[in-house]
Amino acid sequence: MKPIIIAKDVVTRFDEKLVHDGLSLHINEGEIYGLLGPSGCGKSTLMREMILLESYESGVINVLDENLNNISALASQKLRKQFGVLFQSNALFTSLSVAENIAVALKEYTSLSQSLINEIVAFKIDIVGLKQEDGCLYPSQLSGGMRKKAALARALVMDPRLLFLDEPTSGLDPISAREFDALVLKLKEMLQLTIVMVSHDLNSIKTTLDRMAVIDHKKIVAEGTLEEVMATDSPFIKTFFTTYSKHLR
Amino acid sequence: MNDNGAALQVETEEDTLVFTFSGDLILGVLSQIEAQLHFHKSPPDIKTVIYNLEAVERFDSAAALMILSQIRKMEGRGVECTLLYKNDEFGRLLDMVKKHSHTNSTFMPVGDTPLEVLGKKIIQILETLIGFLSFFGQVVSALSHYLFSPRSIRIKEIMFEMNESALKALGIVSLTMFLVGIVIAYQSSVQLKIYGANIFIVDMLGISILRELAPMLTAIVVAGRSGSAYAAQIGVMKITEELDAMRTMGFDPYAFLVLPRILALMIMMPILIFVADMMGMIGGMLIANLELGLTPVLFLDRFAEVVDIRHFWIGMLKGPFFALLIASIGIFHGLMVKNDTQSIGMNTTKSVVQAIFAVIICDAFFSIIFTNLGI
Q1: ipTM
Q2: Contact A182/A149 with Cβ under 8 angstroms?
Q3: Using one digit for the tens of pLDDT, what is the confidence trace for B310-323?
Q4: What is the DSSP letter of A15?
Q5: Which of A97, A240, B224, B235 has the fewest CB atoms found within 10 Å of its own CB?
């Protein structure tokens, strides 16, 4: 399998505070990859570096064969169209309806006819499990789970190969969270996506992730499948997955 | 990854139209292909259309939607369509897209008729008025609580707000009023010179600045500076649920946030107006000296003689009333913020506009009252 994201010796520093001290990982095409770790370990920061929202001090990050060090404005703009991002707080534009939120990138970057744009929007609304009528609603009129789905539809609008999810199940009730996990798996199958997600949700980790990396003390302490990670000797992994094994029983 | 671009070849054989696609048929290049297909949308004498995807390397859901919608339109016109592809993946994608597509979704938000718009607007205004009254009632009830148990007065918060919204505004209020004094004095000195009535500039400046201009302009500056800040601060606190957190911890937001701001501004407004009075007169005095040759000693002499103290007190008296209006309108709009980012901007704007408007109305009332009382 071909790696789609490669990070090598990434060092990140916020003012004086060292966040990452030489992180290396690789994410293969077609897998659901999780970034795990205690809060404040910099997993969201690492994801933000991959999606060009944050810069790192040294090292190399390669996303879709594009080296992010000194990436040109043009190349970064092109790269941005090839991935979708679902933010933790959804970040739907409050002044636009759900359908407009989904269509905004299409209107900006393509000159497709309105009827085809409508069809694409209708399709995205359908695949994330919303009803067609929901397209006319504004984000403030939606429930938390529906907002997540709408934001996911917006992230998928440009048919990206790569999807980033930042704590997708946080703030959802357990039933919606499991539904969302199923949706992520279904979409991965349907659209041949590679998905990178930051998660704390043990159930999501168990059911959705193919591979994962655990970040602790500024480094990757483990990378691989769930079994491989659980076999690693680290205090964080022990406490984190002890709750998990209790969960299983 | 690089986009190889897509190409579309169109051939006609007798009554058959053949579209041959090649390359990467993906969203990024779809616009041209769609335009090209649109060009051939109703060819005459065609019975069969063949969409050939055999040479396509990449294919995505948007492209599938486009092809399917083309086929639908053609079949609607009674033309027979055939879709050719080699890659099983394409077939899977086409089936999946077909299953999830909706052909006549329009997503037009339901609009209101003009009458409905008018009705909603009126109800909205009435609701705002009632909301403001209820807000005011809460303020008065919190104030009475203050009066009966003076120990609950949040002295620290009041002091903090006095510094934030009044002391820090001293600079801008002084500068504004100094410049206004200069402008008024300059304009009137030109007129007064014509009649040789130089000395009357003191009467003019004294009465207009002390009685009207200083209170009004101070109020406008404060409305723009602090009224908007109150609306935005409290609005964000509402969105982040800080207000709810305070309530559940038993801290009444009216006692902790609303009253300190209102009281601080009511206490400080006369002081700001006093400074504005002085700065306005200094500006006027400067121009009187330069333009009309009126020395400061002469100016002050005349000032004490002709400008009655009541003009000063009227200006001062307006201060707390203006402050009450500005602070309560600002805070009220902060509390009206709903759970989205747009409503912060809207309510902040409203707070400034309505505060300035209310100040002017209030000033007009004062004018009428004082004139009728003969003051």
Answers
A1: 0.79
A2: no
A3: 999 999 999 999 99
A4: T
A5: B224
